[in-house]
Amino acid sequence: MLAAVLWLYRDVLRSLVHQWASDDNYSHGFLILPIAIYCAWERRDLLRRIEPRPHAGGLALVLLSLATFAMGALAAELFLMRLSLVGVIVGALVFVWGPSFLRALAFPLALLPLMIPLPTIVFNQIALPLQLIASRVGETVIGAAGIPVLREGNILELPGMTLAVAEACSGIRSLLSLVTLAILLAYFLGTGLWGRLVVVASAVPIAIMANAARVAGTGLTAHWAGRPAAEGFFHGFSGWLLFVTAFAVLIGVQTFVNRGWMPRWHRTALEERCSPAP
Fold this sequence. Notes:
Blueprint: H1 2-8, H2 10-22, H3 29-42, H4 44-49, H5 56-75, H6 78-96, H7 99-104, H8 106-111, H9 120-144, E1 150-152, E2 155-158, E3 161-164, H10 172-189, H11 193-225, H12 227-231, H13 233-259, H14 264-274
Antiparallel strand pairs: 1-2, 2-3
């Protein structure tokens, strides 16, 4: 069965790896599969105790996924073909081992869609608002520093120069990577469902504000030190620095959530479950 899946999806897998290697927005895809395999391996003792109960619903999901693969191939839509691979894996597990195995492997399987690049139309619908947000924040910060600035969409007009917040500077790359890291951080170090949800949700504003700070810093550097300084080493280094800073803030949120924050009713229920029996 595994050999058949690999043969059928050989071109899909080849294109997926190629996009991870050539598109910086999805370079985190190389990490998803090893982490998912590790999370599944962690559950090996639980899986041994589960009695296999094959379910016909898994076969139905496999057939539906293969139909999706065929439609994607006819329409030359890679996203559907790649997504159908996840459906085939899930359906095969249910068909061979049963729903109990699916529940035990829910998290590793839920990670797999993160390695699939978004369709271009969806990607653009996310990137454009991020460009505008970064441009607005950059305009505000630069103006607050006493530098005349005029914004037209994603274009910032400074004295003697024009800066464009391009798609590559929209922050979607750091957003996708930081959300992926937040999911892993919440899973391995999180406490309680609410705490994990807060950590994952916080990754979105943290990534947006980090990228906006980068745009503002680029504008200030361009005005004070000249455009070549802003476009050279500083531009690449600031991206790495702010991503590391954003990840540090995310860890701070995780620590805060684990140590003190959670809804009172949830904390009380957790304490009751964890308190020793008299």
